[in-house]
Design a protein that fits this description.
Elements: E1 10-13, E2 16-18, H1 38-48, E3 52-55, H2 62-72, E4 79-82, E5 94-96, H3 98-107, E6 122-124, H4 126-135, E7 142-143, H5 152-157, H6 159-166, E8 200-204, H7 212-215, H8 218-223, E9 225-228, E10 233-236, E11 244-249, H9 257-260, E12 264-267, H10 273-283, H11 291-306, H12 317-330, H13 336-342, H14 344-350, H15 358-372
Parallel strand pairs: 3-11, 3-12, 4-8, 8-11
Antiparallel strand pairs: 1-2, 5-6, 7-10, 9-10
Helix pairs in contact: 10-11, 10-12
Length: about 400
Amino acid sequence: MQSPPHFLALESTDPLKLCEPLTARHDDPVNYNPPPGLKEAVDVAMMLGEPIVLTGAPGAGKTQAAKWLAHHLNANEVLRFDVKSTTLGADLLYAFDDVARFRDAAAGRTPQFDVKPLVRYLRFNALGYGIVRAAGPNSVLWTVGGEELKGGDVIQRHRKLLDDAFGPGWQPTGDEVRVCDLFPDDADFRQPFRGREVRVVLIDELDKAPRDTPNDLLVEVENMTFLIAELGLRVKTDRKVRPIVVITSNAEKPLPEPFLRRCAYFDVPRVRGETLKAILQGSLKGRSVSENLINEVVEVADLLHSSQDAIHRKPGTAELLAWSEVLARLGAGSGLKAWGRKQRDQLAQSLTALLKQADDQRAGLDMITKWMEGARGRPREARGAALPDSPSWR
């Protein structure tokens, strides 16, 4: 009878419990080592009061750059929005639950229910919340027509709008409709001592969105103001206190020129050499990993990137970090060459963390094998090579 498979990822089987992911520590901004030029580019963007667009290969560290920036600026947790293929410009600012509103409105036709004020269906998303926090709780709101909601006469003139937004008979504090009124349940934000706050906003993979999405944000990005259409209210801040906006793109499609004109730009280069070593050392700190393994991983990275056609999708920094973690877990901590010569099956299977196409894994295994044997160079008939079917993960 065949024995059950052994998985190194299991901490226990009764109850079933997985070990902590090897890559969990990679999200720690303390371990992030920015590539040359990134700090200066971000500094320029902040001086200009503009968002910064970061491009680069997948896994180059674009998303981590935003976390690193927030950490070193003591700007609290990053306000993050993950863009999807259906994301519209307004989605980055806020969400309004129309479904719940219509359901409650239908129920409100019976005596036992009251229709909720519109503000109860409002939720801010990353960019909108960043602007709101920069505006501060005491900032006065504006109408669609550009009138500041301040003063008894103005309040009375817009009584219907305010009743719909905040509830029948609602009265603002001090004859001013303020940003904090958009947060009826956030007592902390409504405290008098709360001031304006700069936050780091991450808009991740904006190139996934429809082309019109960036163009729909031109005014919001440039002036840091946005309209809550359902409430008929506008939030405004100014260029002195504004969120720091980091936008990433994998360049699956180009961002519109009018949008780019309003942004600073930096292409995150491939990390190599001493910078890559420093990243590996920081991320693998505490693991049973020698300096020898780190140096060899850097060599392999250069080898794979030097090939013109053998490796179609070159590994990024994220894949190299993941691969190094797997190698250490499999027992290659003292060195890749010595371990790989004895554990070719495990070496081949470890490439699932490094190379993300079957042909690339075959070619990569051939290249690394020749490198271990001292015969560096482009593989011969690499794409016809076979990966082992039954690796030993013991």
